């Protein structure tokens, strides 16, 4: 049963707050990278490894929490995970060295994963077809505000305190979300629709999804693209501040402005959903990503000015808003019987790939942007290959494909 219209935005805001833990956890401490490096007396690559640890936690957590939510429902796993999140946030704040900090970041990412994966599963519990796409685009509107807010908030916090204050704030966010989940989240998966509490069956469900050629194509296309975004996320704090001399505040503005591009991309899909198919949006987003990343690499190799790099990166991030919204709808449409597991796989790949790409950005040191440019171009091309190799439908001879294809076809 779908919520009434007057309750829809309340649900969007609630689920958006849960799924926003991901971008908040990733982005809010980015302006602090140089300060954390100096405070722990360590190398930039180890600080970037803390981002990798968080991404691994986010990915691993989703693959565990998604199927568990198919067994135990959506509400209880969210509340337990949010309680763990606030404890991990405070553990980050009091870490005595970089290695404890990295471990705490892993736990923080693991705990944050439940909000991401289960919020998507709740959407699939309640909606299908074009309504699923429209609601998810609304959820993305709320969720994409946080890449705008997080780095600005992070730079604001460190302007009057140290990086430790960032994690104190994240702990306070965790406390708030525990209260909101307890008071405002209703169970959307009744017992009769839950999977058996059998890990063998859960594993078989994951295997079934992996064998689904189209689902895997959509998941890989989205995951590889977002893997490239994490290279951008990990690289730009040093590129903007070390190479171009941007202040933490200017970095926060430049980085946060890409939240606008995410919003533009996702809302483009939601608003024009009746005129173009999700498949057409996905192809457009993949092509836009390839063109933007190629331009960004050219600017880097030619040592172009800052604005010449910011512009194609803006377009690159916009393509993520387009492809994420379209691919989610296409992949989830046929997975109502195991929405948690499907959402987990969709969420796992980006963070696993992001965990690989993030540290690679720093292989040439703090003063080279070339690795980031190469990585985002490579991921854009690989995402295109994943779509055309796995997810694209084969046209039957003599059959015209309508502009608006059914999602279930």
Automatic annotation (TrEMBL):
Bilayer topology term: Multi-pass membrane protein
PROSITE patterns hit by this protein? MFS
On whether Transmembrane is a keyword of this UniProt record, the answer is: yes
Similarity annotation: Belongs to the major facilitator superfamily. Bcr/CmlA family.
This chain's protein is named Bcr/CflA family efflux transporter
- From the record, give the transmembrane residue ranges: 9-26, 46-66, 78-100, 106-123, 135-154, 160-185, 215-240, 246-269, 281-303, 309-332, 344-364, 370-390
Q: Which InterPro entries match?
A: Efflux_drug-R_Bcr/CmlA, MFS, MFS_dom, MFS_trans_sf
Signal sequence: where?
Answer: none
Keywords for the protein's UniProt record, in alphabetical order: Cell membrane, Membrane, Transmembrane, Transmembrane helix, Transport
Per the record, the domain of life is Bacteria
Transmembrane helix keyword on record = yes
Q: Which CDD domains match?
A: MFS_MdfA_MDR_like (cd17320)
Domain Major facilitator superfamily (MFS) profile: where?
Answer: 11-395
PANTHER family hit by this protein: MAJOR FACILITATOR SUPERFAMILY, POLYAMINE TRANSPORTER 2-RELATED
List where in the cell it is found: Cell membrane
